[in-house]
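Notes continue from the previous slide.

Worked example: a multi-chain complex. Inputs as given:
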Amino acid sequence: MIAVLCGGVGAARMLAGMQAVVDPGAIIGIVNTGDDTELHGLHISPDLDTITYTLSGVANPTTGWGLTGDTFRAMQALERFDAVTWFRLGDADLATHLYRTGRMREGATLSEVTAEISRAWGLRVRLLPMSDDPVRTRLRLEGAQEVAFQEYFVKLRHSVVVDSVRFAGAEVARPAPGVLAALEAAEVVVVAPSNPVVSIGPILAVPGVTSVLTARRDSVVAVSPIVAGAALRGPADRLLVELGGQASAPGVARFLSAWVGTLVIDEADADVAGEVEAAGVKCIVAPTVMRTPEMAAGLARTVLGTAGMDLGPSGGAPVAPGA
Amino acid sequence: MIAVLCGGVGAARMLAGMQAVVDPGAIIGIVNTGDDTELHGLHISPDLDTITYTLSGVANPTTGWGLTGDTFRAMQALERFDAVTWFRLGDADLATHLYRTGRMREGATLSEVTAEISRAWGLRVRLLPMSDDPVRTRLRLEGAQEVAFQEYFVKLRHSVVVDSVRFAGAEVARPAPGVLAALEAAEVVVVAPSNPVVSIGPILAVPGVTSVLTARRDSVVAVSPIVAGAALRGPADRLLVELGGQASAPGVARFLSAWVGTLVIDEADADVAGEVEAAGVKCIVAPTVMRTPEMAAGLARTVLGTAGMDLGPSGGAPVAPGA
């Protein structure tokens, strides 16, 4: 069994690559819910939905959120009111939020609803929210104003300087059922190429997670979301610098080194592999950019191969970059 | 000032007729919320919305609910899940429910949100929910099963026999701010041609309403929703019979006689006017079917004229049925 710590788009693509090379039933995605928000009374779980839609082949590839071909009639009508409309919710996408919210008001946990939504979409990978308790990523901006994650990420388009990040509610949150067990029992724990600060950070803030990972550090493999000094998408590069680190593969290694034994970095960063190793993290150089499903499968083979997993007849095929 | 006790479609049409013959700013609609329901976590107020959409000229005239030309992408997507889809929510209509729900989760009362929604639509008539507290109409069916109003009305299409009706929560509900004051101060209280059992009944169940109405019975004017022994729409005729009354204009008179001084009945029922008077209710015979805005305005003139109101230069024009 493979456990994967997941943020949004990068994690979704890597899970898609993984399920192409190993039995999807053996994959458990543990998903960040620090981005979750309540809007118009609806419980919205952006990372869970991005993964669900991506694995179902219906994600909008250009936006990174929502469903391909969705319409925005409800949003358009909402503009009549003094309501938040900078967070766009497509009409078909709304169904997911409506279902989730309805079930949670009935008393279902986020884990239970996530399993139901996964089943409805026919997912074969198992998705677990990191916690059923509310954990909310909050960012203190330069000038001392604190904002919720979606306000930073969507409304302000993350073009502001962040002084500090906290995960409100994390100290009293419990890992969702199955999370710690999966992290303990997995043959390998993979850290998807997600934002280490605001996508992986919330998962680590859930009590119990870090200590389990630290205890099995040698079989925790991360993929660097920083390639050639820049994040492939989102503000990971700037956040790392703003919080006192470096926007580089070695910077990621140092950020994660307490509980990550191996870091897969992109070929573009081959020259800094030694610097990663100097941080006490084993370094693997490979193509990491997932522009196509084949490239995602290639990355999955690299990641699982370094963990010594048997990938079966085709799973061990040599990685052909760009194939 | 005119206070109008309102259900859905019939009330919406009568309010539209009224605002054509008197200053809309003088009209206060006190609206049934016993039909309100929570679906997918959203607070839905069907009667308030039907009136708002009708007065805004955007109501779907064929369904009696929702917005004309609306799409159903969210509903279609919801069918993937094990969710209630028999209660249809159009995409643009959803915006109203999203806004209301978001504001109520923020702590706004239903009255406050109703005022905001009215303002957003530019309504000139003032709408008040009968109560800001939850009152829910529940029907005990033959065979002892109890269902919520929308399940009876929409899912079962009211083609079941009802043994009894109750208004859960009514005993502890408080009239919404302004309701009792409007009922006391109004020059005339009008009872719209709405279902007396399940549309007007919940308003009467709110503590304080009946006693105010009884005290001013002589200036309370109702319009019979039963014409020639049948309800123009909905189950009012069957409900009256099932609950021990009669599906006739005199049946309506007897049902309301404790607090209604005058009943306007349709020309089709002219032969039973004496029977209405025998119930102790003054009877006015007039065209009551509102097939066109002109007919609705005509009915409004009749109703307000019988209350001796000065309708201004054009307000007193003779009613031309079918004009």
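Summary box: The radius of gyration of chain B is 19 Å. DSSP finds 14 helices and 14 strands in chain B.
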